[in-house]
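Entry 14. Ran structure prediction on the chain below.
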Amino acid sequence: MRIHLQAGLSRAAAATLLGGALLMPGAHAATPGHSASPTIGSTATADLGTLLRRIQDAGLQQSYVGTYVTSSGGQISSSRITHYCDGREQIERIEALDGQMRRVFRHNDTIHVLWPARRSALIEQRDLLGRFPQPLPPGDSGRLADSYELMLEADDRVAGLEAQVVTLRPRDTMRYARRLWLERRTGLLLRSDLLGPQGEVLESTAFSELQIGGKLQPQQLLQEMNQLEGYQISRPSYQPTDLGAEGWSLRAPVSGFVAQRVLRRPITPWPTPRSTAEPQPVSQPPGAGASVLQAVYSDGLANVSLFIEPHVAGVSRRETPATVGSTSALSRRLGDWWVTAVGAVPPATLQQFTGSLERKRKP
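Output, structure tokens:
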């Protein structure tokens, strides 16, 4: 699968599909909002926006330590999360417990991704990362309700904690259903399942054990975060831009999805794998030094990224879909350009995005 992905996708697109800093479990905390609301009502007419804001606020306001397990595509991975919050400061450490050692630190809007075995580090800003759920602008919950129906389920327990369970059922075939488990007292997201058309679980992420509250040591986390002596540090340069200004447009909007941001980001080399069982990519890909355009669309729950980059002569790529767990990718050549759509959505949704994208003019 990785060989196929490397052949068909840009570095940025493959990173999004395979996971990493952009998709780490701690990404559900959002920008500051109101204090945590009580549990949502006991009828199916409960407000979807209220539910999502409760999850966002809980992720922002609570301190906790726990082990987070993800099951997707027959693969299981786990991470240890330490999250500190005092109402002003957000400090977080996520340690991968499987495979190559990786630590992700967050201090407010700054992210450090460390690979101790390689002595390499990546530093970037949080406002460029995906979040779940997406922060809802005022009055935007109505648009979300056009795409999803909120269904209340029977209460359950996760990691020994009482949980309120809800299902967000799509109103069309453009997105997947989600079942969420909220810690009853705080609203902290304990588990999230992505469900296929027949109700099958495509991906499940959940705490296997969790301690909410307690006294954490934020200074120790900051000290670990900034121990970068001897590390090779990469600081990608992301430039906000506009799809139209870059000479692109979507002929028709994709139902429920709204543009969130457009970034121009560098095409970086693939990191050297530690296992000889993994493919050995070139240290510097063809076209290195060029950049890729990333346009992010969201329906409030699901994200789709469109990656647009120049087609490089002599580089073999196939216009075939790829899937890792619940996340799919679809690539196609468009004249002198190579377009890839990535998202945890049905392949037909990605086809609408790539089929609607068109080149308007040369910038």
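Residues 48-61 form the longest helix (14 residues). Will compare against last week's run tomorrow.
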